[in-house]
Amino acid sequence: MLKLTKVNTFYGNIQALKDLSIEINEGEIITLIGANGAGKTTTLMSISGVVPPRSGEITFDGVPIHAMSPEKIVKMGLCQVPEGRRIFPHLSILENLDMGAYLREDKEGVQQDLEYVMDLFPILKERRHQAGGTLSGGEQQMLAISRALMARPRLLLLDEPSLGLAPLIIRQIFDIITRINKESGTTIFLVEQNANLALKSAHRGYVMENGVVTLSDTAENLLANEEVKKAYLGI
């Protein structure tokens, strides 16, 4: 579904991604783990067109997207939930969700998806007229995920969904991520520092160090890998 082939991305003269190659199949949950500064967020930004690669190829359903604008990539069915949530704080929950669907013209489908995300996160339904900026961190993360789902993505990119959240909320968010994958078949590419939880939720995983993928395997095998245990699982 998504394929990165020898992708090189720079910030000025600083190279963030080095000959990066990753494959994601339809229906999978894939996780990318690594330390701060490893290049995980840059990987998502390169895929979504925010920070285009200088060389290499990114294809979505066989179509090259590495030179496309972000809005065209969203139209193709690929949507990102950014690190730090970045909701519209002065807009209500409903208005934030409307923004997620701004490229769509199927009103009935939009209404169905609105009901779906309200079912996923009942707290958003209860507070639908409340300004996004007045929500707790966990509720804002729920809103950010819901806003992305309103675009009806086939591939959902999640950047550090557990960042700054309480353990109970993190568990709830990850349960919902798994539910989205199972119920709607949405493919998910998950960047996450909580490697243990990410690998327990994923089918396969990649380990990144300094812009390079150093290891890739099934999530189960990565959980059992001694190097991964020592570096990322605290075991």
TrEMBL record:
Coiled-coil stretches: none
InterPro entries membership: AAA+_ATPase, ABC_branched_ATPase_LivF/BraG, ABC_transporter-like_ATP-bd, ABC_transporter-like_CS, BCAA_Transport_ATP-bd_LivF, P-loop_NTPase
Keyword Transport: yes
GO terms assigned for molecular function: ATP binding; ATP hydrolysis activity; branched-chain amino acid transmembrane transporter activity
Signal peptide: none
One example of a Gene Ontology biological process annotation: L-amino acid transport
Keywords: Amino-acid transport, ATP-binding, Nucleotide-binding, Transport
Domain ABC transporter: 2-235
Pfam families: ABC_tran
Keyword Nucleotidyltransferase carried by entry: no
Protein family (similarity comment): Belongs to the ABC transporter superfamily.
Protein name: Amino acid/amide ABC transporter ATP-binding protein 2, HAAT family
Native organism: Desulfoluna spongiiphila
